[in-house]
Amino acid sequence: MKVAAALEARPLPADTRMRHLRAYRSMARTGLKSLLAYQTSFLFGMLASTFGALSMLYLWRSVLSAGPRHGFDWPQMKAYLLVAFVAGSLVSSYTDYRMANRIKQGDVAIDLVRPVDYQWSRFAESLGVAAYEAGTAVVVALGAAALLGGVPLPDPDTFGLFVVSALLVFPLRFGIVYMSGLLVFWTQNYVGLQAARIALITLFSGALVPLVFLPEWIQVASAYLPFAGMASTPALLYSGSLGGGAAATAVLVQAVWSAGLWLLARGMWSAACRKLTIHGG
Amino acid sequence: MRRTIRLYRRLLGAQVRATLEYEADFWIMSLSAVLVQGIGVVFLWAIFESIPEINGWRFWEVVLIYAFVVISEGLSTLFTQGAWTLAVTVNFGQLDALLMRPFPPLLQVLSSEVGFNGLGNLVLGIGLVAAAVRHVDFTWSPGRIALGVILVIAAAGVKIGLNLLTNCAAFWLRSPYSMFAFSMHTFGELARFPITIYGLGVRIAITAVLPYAFMSYFPAAAVLSDGTARLLGLLTPLVAIYCLWLGATAFRLGLSRYESSGH
């Protein structure tokens, strides 16, 4: 930890910085490779979330067959849910699970003495994995769209913002997932934490039901919390339900929270290191 | 038979004590279960805020279906969570030790873990039933109550049998993760809603292929005495026996091709 902190404290010479960049790039590749090594498991995991999305789609089809609700008709809702599905697939299969195991078993001690930053390392790995997660999820979403009679194209007016917003989903999800992984330093249990985290994100990000359907206080809370940016914002931009100033503000909130979560995670990491106990030697 | 039950209780009891050593775990698991299922109810509520009924099912009736899922899930995680350890047990060749002991290996596997999230599920599930029966059109009679209790137990049997069946895939897939079983479990979650909302293919799959619908939709229909679904719901105990038999058979077949891990 001392070493890592010292490295961070002073500006790095240019060639060291290049070396680090190379290290992170190969970590991203390694993350992707270890996912591919267990590809069957990953694909079954994807199948599981596909079933989840499918039940939502069918349910909303029944609900909206009677006419639009809260400004959503069936084609819009289809688009909304599928974008939310792709967003929700990011950083969902590797990062926290592996972190939690290494913390529980004490292997994190090895990570501490590595001459690279822990948070950037996990970020790089997750990025490598996310490329594959996003690819698979898009294929699934396109399949589902074909099955359900197609989805409308993205709204051309907000398309630029939609792209920015979609890219910001990654740092937001990484921040939350990374921090929930760090909680294992205190709890030692991860299964329960993970379940609770997934449930909370699912509700507050509007992944199953657009936030306008929820009680007012949840809507207000979600607008200021990082959650809406993890599914609702890009999905609303895609389906054209968010425009003008509100759209720009929502994307700005995403950007601010991306940076904010990163700094929060930094603070949490240094608290966790003081808390760490490694058994045996 | 008495010996079997007694030993099962003892094995499970050992797990309970082991788990309770970590008190924080107990609380995290129980509370997270309540949170997860509670959010499911919030979601249902949000949908019914904008529409009075889905395919003829009103809010509290769907809550009853949902409660059936929550309770079956609770009973199966409390008493037979060990099924989910099969993937690791088989992959690491740990089944060897179990085969040496004078107690059926299947029961040793099933009792090898206790899921305290089941407790949270049970508390919430019973609460949901209590709230739902006050709102649905429902006349109390001793027969009705007895039927309800039998159906809840049978529904849990369906879930336990299917859990075992899908987890037995570990004998063939040999991966240390139970992702196949997990994906089928999520498929089963489709039975949280009236299955009439799905397309024909899904309906057939969830009724006849992996009959998760008998964990919730059909028994709930039987309690509410709702049309043809009710008649099928009365068959739930038979379906439970069939599912448990399927699970046990898959385990037997898997065991016959189990060859430990390389040494």
Automatic annotation (TrEMBL), chain B:
Domain of life: Bacteria
UniProt KW keywords: Membrane, Transmembrane, Transmembrane helix
TM region positions: 26-48, 63-93, 114-133, 145-173, 193-214, 234-255
InterPro entries: ABC-2_transporter-like
Keyword check for Membrane: yes
Alphabetized Pfam families for the sequence: ABC2_membrane_6 (PF06182)
Name assigned to this protein: ABC-2 family transporter protein
Source organism of the structure: Plantactinospora alkalitolerans
